[in-house]
Amino acid sequence: MFAKTAWKNLWRNRRRTVITVTAMALGLALAIFFIAWGEGVYSRLIDQAVRLQAGHITLEAPGYLDAPAVDLTIPHANRLAAEIAALPDVERVKPIVLGQGMAKSGADAVGVVITGVLPSAERAASPIVQNMKEGRYLEDGDHALAVMGTKLAERLDLMPGKKLVIATNDVSGNLTEVLCRVAGLFETGADEVDGYYVQVPISFARKVFNMPEDQVTQLGVVLKNPDLQRRVMAEIRALVPAKEAVVLPWQEVMPEVASYIRMDSASNWVFQGILLFLVLFTIFNTVLMSVLERRREFAILLAIGTTPMRLATMVFFESVFLGLLGCGMGVLVGAGLSWFFNVVGIDMASLLPEGINISGFAVSTKIFTKLSAGIVLVPAGLVFAAILLLAAIPMRRAAKTRLAENLR
Amino acid sequence: MTQPIVDVNGVVKDYGQNSVVTHALRGVSLALMPGEFTAMAGPSGSGKSTLLNMIGALDRPTQGSVEIEGRDISAMKDAALSRLRRDRIGFVFQGYNLIPVMTAFENAEYVLMLQGIAPDERRRRVLAVLDQVGLAGMEKRFPRELSGGQQQRVAIARAIAPEPALVLADEPTANVDSKTAQSLLSLMRDLNDKGITFLFSTHDPAVMEKAKRLVTLKDGNIEDDEKR
Prior knowledge:
The complex is a heterodimer. By secondary structure, chain A is an alpha+beta fold. Chain A is built from 16 helices and 14 strands. In chain A, the strands form three sheets. In chain A, strands 2-3-8-5-7-6 form a six-stranded mixed barrel. Chain B is 35% helix and 29% strand. Chain B has a six-stranded mixed beta sheet. In chain B, strand 4 and strand 5 (71-72) form a beta hairpin. The longest helix of chain B is centred in the C-terminal third of the chain and has 16 residues, at 178-193. The chains are: A alpha+beta, B alpha/beta. At the A-B interface, helix 1, helix 12 and helix 16 of A face helix 1, helix 2 and helix 3 of B.
């Protein structure tokens, strides 16, 4: 009967209840949507970064992370790559030879990152492959060919078909210079990539660095589901002798991306927290007002034998119903919005014509929200729990109603 | 010898603190026997409502004692007072004071529900009391759908449904017209004839006339106690 009465009490001031529930639902829905939006951006950023660089999980020679050098290599890379690729949650394994050098043309010389890749492993999802502007991307059979960013090509005054000299130190520390031709130009939108990145076939990179055939500086592992990173790392560690390679998460290989996501995510949660706090304040105000307005009625209920505990329980039920209605609607609207934009996406190109560039990685201007049970249920659960906690004050006020004073 | 339902001994009630103290009751003693139909009269501020609050266990005296059926309420804890009010005292307030979101039936049923009486028994008793107060067929109406007199009848039904030893009524006819007041008074007299003890405060001379006993208060003291 107390629950039934509490439910009816909620609708005594229909307008106030509707406004409160709507405010709560709207606040929660916005919080869910913006968290889903943020997670969508991070997810896309991580995806772009790991596909361009060394995967969700990276294998490197011990010590390479602290002082990258081409002489720190993983031996038996082909066998290891095949074993890792056979794991059920692995999408692909990218063998990489990574080094520094100079790209020289008749016009200029620019310090660059030289990345030797297996073109077939990159072709499916690399942001470079997807953003080719001129010429073509690399093929597995290619040898002395390179792709580079449009900005670098502009500085070196190069175009597809033109010659380029790559100068670097090989694994023994000797200076080498190798001639190749430009196969194509890409434009990812990130200056750090478009201006200083040269990609070549891995066989050619080995020749440039004078590296043995079965060695790489990194093995990048791209996962089918990034959430399984920890589990797959454990599986890979079981396959790899510790002295040959260390198994690292992308967060350690690209700490600047990880810390950007941590900071931005934290500020997003704080901002949503402030929004929800304001919403909670509205709810608290509603419940408290409705209690203060009914002091005489509570005095009557206490006078005819209701215990203070039962009266407080009734007020608690009112908060519970208010919370369930608001949170329920907020979850439906927030999850619905997030789901819709998870499927359709939001194209920000008109608002951000220069593109989105985060930590040196270009992220597509079409943002897809990321929806998960945690994104929806954590804010909703926090709001609901806060409502129940906040109910303690109106409950106490109701239970402490002074009988004689309020019956006058 | 029959024990009084209510035994008020030298009750003093002061409101306020330090320099600003209002003496609402100044040493009142009063005993009510079972079956009485007593009116308390007196001007505003004479202490009628305060005395009613003391007897109804809604407030505690500053000095003196109040016993209900031999139990001193000033020594009882809040939970025990709640049980005492629930089981032994019925209240009829000025201005009806029904729960607006409950039907007439639910209002009358409320205290029985607090008492933990089974639903079938509650239904039987509520229908009987609503019939007794002349509201048969109006069980499903909400307070807003009832006239002032009908609402006060629901309040009386709520007060008597738990079969209390005593019904306290604070100016029960104050907010109704004289015809309705007469009809409510007749209802209370009929219930009194069936054994329910009534104590009510009033300003209404017509109500005082119907009372079997009239206690008159003035400035926090009993000025007159007339048994008829």
